[in-house]
């Protein structure tokens, strides 16, 4: 569908349909962001914590991975809270 046809189709939607489409697009964007964040967290934490102890993680590596993931999620939460505060102040 070309942009002009898509634009015309959007004009014919009810406000509820437009809201549903926007909500679905937001959910898809959030899922992509979460997938990207989890992939980044996994790569970063594995590179930081996993050694060359073979095909199993030792206790030290497991603790490092758990701590790294916790810090990653803490930072994500802090950023999300900050963004929500900024949006609330606008």
TrEMBL record:
Q: Which organism is it from?
A: Discostella pseudostelligera
Gene Ontology BP annotations: protein transport
Self-association state and partner proteins as the record states:
Heterohexamer.
The lineage is: Eukaryota, Sar, Stramenopiles, Ochrophyta, Bacillariophyta
Membrane topology note: Peripheral membrane protein
Domain-level remarks: The twin CX3C motif contains 4 conserved Cys residues that form 2 disulfide bonds in the mitochondrial intermembrane space.
Domain Tim10-like: from-to ranges: 24-84
Keywords attached to this Swiss-Prot or TrEMBL record, sorted alphabetically, are:
Chaperone, Disulfide bond, Membrane, Mitochondrion, Mitochondrion inner membrane, Protein transport, Translocation, Transport
Q: Name one GO cellular component term.
A: mitochondrial inner membrane
Tell me, what does this protein do in biology? Mitochondrial intermembrane chaperone that participates in the import and insertion of some multi-pass transmembrane proteins into the mitochondrial inner membrane. Also required for the transfer of beta-barrel precursors from the TOM complex to the sorting and assembly machinery (SAM complex) of the outer membrane. Acts as a chaperone-like protein that protects the hydrophobic precursors from aggregation and guide them through the mitochondrial intermembrane space.
What coarse category fits the chief subcellular location reported for this protein? Answer: mitochondrion
Cell compartment(s), UniProt = Mitochondrion inner membrane
* Protein's name according to its UniProt entry: Mitochondrial import inner membrane translocase subunit
Work out whether the entry's keyword set contains Mitochondrion: yes
Q: Which family does it belong to?
A: Belongs to the small Tim family.
Task: Indicate whether DNA damage appears among the record's keywords.
Answer: no
